[in-house]
Design a protein that fits this description.
There is one protein chain. With 636 residues, the chain is an alpha/beta fold. The chain has 27 helices and 19 strands. The longest helix is centred in the first third of the chain and has 38 residues, at 173-210. It has five domains: 13-193, 2-Layer Sandwich (Beta-Lactamase); 212-311, PAS domain (Beta-Lactamase); 316-492, P-loop containing nucleotide triphosphate hydrolases (Rossmann fold); 500-567, Helicase, Ruva Protein, domain 3, CATH 1.10.8.60; 587-634. A hairpin with a 4-residue loop joins β1 and β2 (83-88). The chain starts with a helix and ends in a 10-residue tail after the last helix. InterPro entries: AAA+_ATPase, AAA_lid_NorR, GAF-like_dom_sf, Homeodomain-like_sf, HTH_Fis, P-loop_NTPase, PAS, PAS-like_dom_sf.
């Protein structure tokens, strides 16, 4: 190791440290050309460092133009000091090539000794080595200035270097490499941020284009900036031709949406009607204003009405009964199942008739689950709630106005499914006319609107009254009666289906086994006693009695002792053995006895009592208070 290097204070400590490391590995007098990466290996390195090479090459060529054709060379190296690219004076490049400094060579300290080409990357700072600062004598005639380049994560990406003869070096050479390295690093950061932004933008566009909802965006001038395929399809527009066009020239905006835009007001799931290509388009929209320095822009989400209806009706309820769950061993039950399956085949309306409690609701659910719309909503409505003319809007819905969102009608809620109308005889005339329009034309007109809305819905109605008498009394539409009368299923009362009673009892017990975690057995004399009863409450009363017996059973065995008291005193005629009535028995006494009987049958459940007696709950509560009847005393 030469004394002038080890003892001279003009060299910084890192040069001395490098000399000590090199002395243990090599001799200063010998020179071997650096090892080179060739072929596939070098191409792989260049591919990995493509961004650095492209940016640095342009920066080096720009710097070379302002160097007055100096006899120097500019180099680009990767983080392992592999020479990737070079430019400069031909004579200098040729002389460096004679030393082995050509594309692919490794300029690490362990190969070429102390040199700025390796030390800059090793130390992470600009380094200049000239003359005898090099360990290898072959480099004494040269001056190397190198500065590392870092990426946007602070990791070493490579380095840039300026090389010239020692006698031609300038004081500004090292600062020049520093300026070039900063320019390259900034460009790498810019490219990285741009690539990241483009990646996020592509992800955003991919997300928007894959959404089920339509997405429409426009700027403060009303010019369309983005339109995904779903929005274009819903609004009958062409995406490429629509972008950059004023929104007002593409579609006619509804008044409610225009007001939201004018007031910069957010709208959430409001129903509106667009006009596009001379067609009216019903959509549910969400408007989101975006406030920034350039003005207010907007994003509009377009929700297809069918999806919104499915979302709303999915929370209302589903039909649980199916024909497979219904008993079919007796002739009467098989008849009901057969006609129910026939009723489910077409889109024609169906009328279910029979006394209270015979199972019209269960049959309607089974019909729904057999139709082509089985996957759609099942909307069950008790028409008694619409007997008041003021409730008409609740059934027909309301059209949207400039100030208010519209309300969906009941046929719209049931679109793609089944609308079950129980106690249809209570519908007022206006709703009867609207229902007839749905059946005949598949259209519904909301209250306060003139526009007809198409609906695809299966109508199933039920009644315990004689609709023909209602027609004669001008209380029910004759045309609507004829529409329902085309397919009518009558469910006989349970007293006329005595052959079904035992099967219904066993079927109900089978349904109770899982929730009660019990295997049930019923004695034959119990079945005989149940079959002898007239069942004024029909299937509903039977199911209630069986459930109560199951809860009171002894380890799942149902005996005569489990029967309610009133079922244990059945006369030979099959009627309860009521005490003989005196000729002076008053009507209030008869009425009180009927309420007491219903309370015993239903175990004091007031809602079931009202159904069994076919009176309203309010009336029942009033009667019970009048006769001092406490329903709680009948409960277990």
């Amino acid at each position: 190791m030469p004394d002038n290097v080890t003892s001279s204070p003009e060299y910084p400590p890192y040069i001395h440290e490098s000399w000590h490391r090199c002395a243990a590995m090599m001799h200063p007098e010998t020179w071997r050309q650096p090892h080179r990466a060739l072929g596939v290996t070098f191409r792989s390195i260049c591919q990995r460092k493509a961004a650095l090479i492209t940016i640095a090459q342009a920066a080096l060529e720009d710097a070379l133009e302002f160097m007055d054709r100096r006899h120097c060379a500019l180099l680009v190296l990767d983080e392992s000091a592999c020479l990737l690219e070079s430019c400069g004076h031909p004579q200098t490049l040729s002389a460096l090539a004679d030393l082995g400094f050509s594309a692919g060579c490794y300029c690490s300290e362990s190969i070429i000794g102390s040199c700025a080409l390796s030390l800059a990357a090793q130390l992470g700072q600009p380094v200049k080595t000239a003359g005898r600062a090099h360990f290898k004598q072959a480099l004494f005639a040269w001056c190397f200035c190198a500065t590392p380049v870092f990426d946007n994560h602070g990791r070493l990406a490579g380095s840039v270097a300026l090389v010239c003869r020692s006698e031609e070096t300038c004081p500004g050479d090292l600062p020049l490499t520093l300026a070039i390295a900063r320019e390259v690093g900034n460009s790498l950061l810019t490219d990285s941020l741009l690539a990241e932004s483009n990646r996020h933008l592509n992800q955003l566009y991919g997300l928007l284009e894959s959404m089920n909802d339509g997405v429409l965006a426009w700027d403060s001038q009303g010019v369309v900036q983005f339109l995904n395929p779903q929005a274009a399809e819903l609004l009958l527009l062409q995406p490429q031709l629509s972008q950059g066009q004023p929104l007002q020239e593409l579609v006619t905006l509804p008044a409610l949406l225009r007001r939201g835009i004018r007031k910069r007001q957010r709208l959430n799931h409001v129903e509106v009607t667009f006009e596009s290509q001379h067609q009216f388009i019903d959509l549910v929209v969400t408007l989101k204003p975006i406030h920034d320095a350039q003005g207010d822009s907007f994003i509009l989400l377009l929700h297809p009405p069918e999806q919104m209806r499915q979302l709303m009706t999915s929370q209302i309820g589903r039909a649980s009964h199916t024909f497979e769950q219904m008993p079919q061993k007796d002739a009467d039950s098989r008849r009901l199942v057969h006609f129910g399956r026939q009723a489910a085949k077409g889109n024609f309306p169906v009328l279910l008739t029979g006394e209270e409690g015979v199972g019209k609701t269960s049959l309607s659910e089974a019909i729904h689950n057999e139709t082509r719309q089985a996957g759609g909503p099942y909307i069950a409505i008790n028409c008694q709630r619409f007997a008041d003319p003021g409730a008409v809007a609740d059934f027909l819905g309301t059209g949207p106005t400039d100030e208010q969102n519209g309300q969906l009608s009941k046929p719209e809620l049931a679109h793609g499914g089944t609308l079950f109308l129980d106690n249809i005889e209570f519908l007022p005339g206006e709703i009867q006319s609207a229902l007839l329009q749905v059946i005949k034309q598949g259209m519904v007109t909301r209250q306060g609107s003139q526009r007809m809305i198409p609906v695809d819905v299966k109508i199933v109605a039920a009644t315990g009254q004689n609709l023909e008498d209602r027609v004669a009394q001008k209380q029910f539409s004759r045309q609507l009666y004829y529409a329902f009368h085309a397919f009518e299923i009558h469910i006989p009362p349970l007293r006329q289906r005595k052959a079904s009673i035992q099967e219904l009892v066993r079927h109900k017990l089978a349904q109770l086994e899982k929730p009660f975690a019990t295997r049930y057995r019923i004695d034959d004399e119990v079945l005989a006693q149940l079959a002898d009863y007239t069942w004024p409450g029909n299937d509903f009363e039977l199911n209630t009695v069986v459930e109560n017996m199951a809860m009171r059973s002894d380890n799942g065995r149902l005996r005569l002792s489990n029967l309610p008291d009133y079922l244990l005193s059945i006369s030979a005629s099959g009627e309860p053995a009521w005490p003989a009535m005196s000729s002076g028995l008053s009507f209030p006494a008869i009425e009180r006895d009927a309420i007491m009987h219903a309370a015993r049958v239903t175990q004091g459940r007031v809602l079931e009592m009202s159904r069994l007696l076919n009176i309203g709950r309010t009336t029942l509560w009033r009667k019970m208070k009048q006769y001092h009847i406490d329903a709680r005393q009948f409960r277990e």
